[in-house]
Amino acid sequence: MSSAKNININLKIWRQKNAKSKGSMETYKLDNVSTASSFLEMLDQLNEQLINEKKEPIAFDHDCREGICGMCSLYINGRAHGPDTGITTCQLHMRMFKDGDTIFVEPWRSKAFPVIKDLVVDRSAFDRIQQAGGFVSVNTSGNTIDANATPVPKHDADKAFEAAACIGCGACVATCKNGSAMLFVGAKVSQYALLPQGKVEATQRVLNMVRQMDEEGFGNCTNTGACEIECPKGISLENIARMNREFLKASLK
Amino acid sequence: MAKSALLKSSIVKKYWMALTGLFLCLFLAGHLAGNLQLIFGDALQFNQYAVFMTSNPAVKLLSYLTYFSILFHAFDGFMLTYQNVKARPIGYAKTNPGANSSFSSRNMAVLGTLILVFIVTHMVNFWAVMHFDKNMPLMKQTVEVQGQKQELFVGRKVGEFYQVDQIQLEGEAPNPMMPKQITIKNGTDVYNIQANVKIGELYKDLHKITFAFFQDAKTGLIATILYVLAMAVLAFHLLHGFQSAFQSLGVNNKFTPAIKTFGKLFAIIVPLLFAVIPVYIHFFK
């Protein structure tokens, strides 16, 4: 990486002691950040600096650091997962920033995603939506049918796979001006609705998942399309339209 | 489940938003066709159209549906916006909305509120005058008979005219020296006084008050400018709203690019043609 260089940056980061306390934006200065490092590595570097200064390190979510798990979040300079498209924050690199930049780092903002500490939010609302209907019934009595034994049209399989690429990171909620979770729920409804295995519970699934989504306090979809653009997995708005169709079908049954 | 969901759910609110919105798009097209008669038709044609629009039972039904749609679209939009604001109690310190969405899509509530204000003032200016104003002028025509100018009320039957000075106007006290034969009742009905029998009907002159409104020496220019601005707001609202309605109803397929293109054309052309009318009346008539 011969093109890598070191830059000095200013950071404005949301600090909040716990779920009950009132947080605020704090300013930090960090020197000698390699442009080859990832955004999370930069935060690691900042945390080392804070620990050396005997200060509380910044809490932030991360796990696989290869864009698969959906754990990392962060609203960076006004955009979910930062200033690039089709990536999670762990895939964001410091080469996207310039020497002397001031970078804003905030947690996902949603009533349904309360802040636990600093930049960490509680995304279990997504788990509860999933539990409300994001599953299929499978006979596990020993007569389990191989999934490949059920023919699925290629087109449907592809669409279902695209929807199933959702990693549940919550960028759609964070970026939506209404804090709507419809891209997430649309993807989860679609991945089953498109497959024969998902047809059995199709009616109850969409009704239950949408009801749970509403109960969690997410906002409503205004079709701005912001979620689709910020989604690290490129989940399409088609999935929201499909959920709307499924919901209408199910409501009329 | 199904029944309560059809009233409460976030998705159902969007269905209603879309259905009422699309119906109002149809209304806009119809209203525009009527208004264009102000440019391409004469006063009589426009006033005949006004009678048709206020008396035909089918049109009446449609107009009630339109009032309902406007009110429900606004109410539903208010409910959705209220929930959306509540869904993010603490906002971001830094935002960059232009990176992923259009101005129109983010400001539908503001644009819609402005349109609602416009609709109310618009109805006060024209609809309320047409329906309730006791001083609404009746359509007259001045003709020259043997070198003398005569003012005639225009009747609704072909070739039916009434000399203005021979009609006892509504609210006018009878003159015992020169009693008149004919009078006007209920705004537009022509009655024979002695027999108390309806013998004809006149036109309310909506054409005249529309022209007067935009040609008024003091307020005509500002009214024209405000009208044009309101149409610009409408254009931005439609720019997002038209195609958004189809997405809300679950239509996102091979026709979507065509729907988006048609929606953009509709959003630009319809408000533009609406806006041309007052500009034409104020500056070129």
TrEMBL record, chain A:
Sample GO molecular function, one term: 2 iron, 2 sulfur cluster binding
Biological-process GO terms, alphabetical: aerobic respiration; respiratory electron transport chain
Pfam family, one: Fer4_8
Cofactor(s) it depends on: [2Fe-2S] cluster; [3Fe-4S] cluster
PROSITE patterns from the UniProt entry: 2FE2S_FER_1 (PS00197), 4FE4S_FER_2 (PS51379)
Residues in 4Fe-4S ferredoxin-type domain copies: 157-187
Family, as annotated: Belongs to the succinate dehydrogenase/fumarate reductase iron-sulfur protein family.
Protein name: Succinate dehydrogenase / fumarate reductase iron-sulfur subunit
Species this chain originates from: Flavobacterium cauense R2A-7
Lineage of the organism: Bacteria, Pseudomonadati, Bacteroidota, Flavobacteriia, Flavobacteriales
Automatic annotation (TrEMBL), chain B:
Keywords: Membrane, Transmembrane, Transmembrane helix
Any one GO cellular component localisation term in the record: membrane
Alphabetized SUPFAM superfamilies for the sequence: Fumarate reductase respiratory complex transmembrane subunits
Transmembrane feature ranges: 65-82, 109-130, 221-242, 262-283
InterPro entries reported for this sequence: Cytochrome_b-558, SQR/QFR_C/D
Protein name (record): Succinate dehydrogenase / fumarate reductase cytochrome b subunit
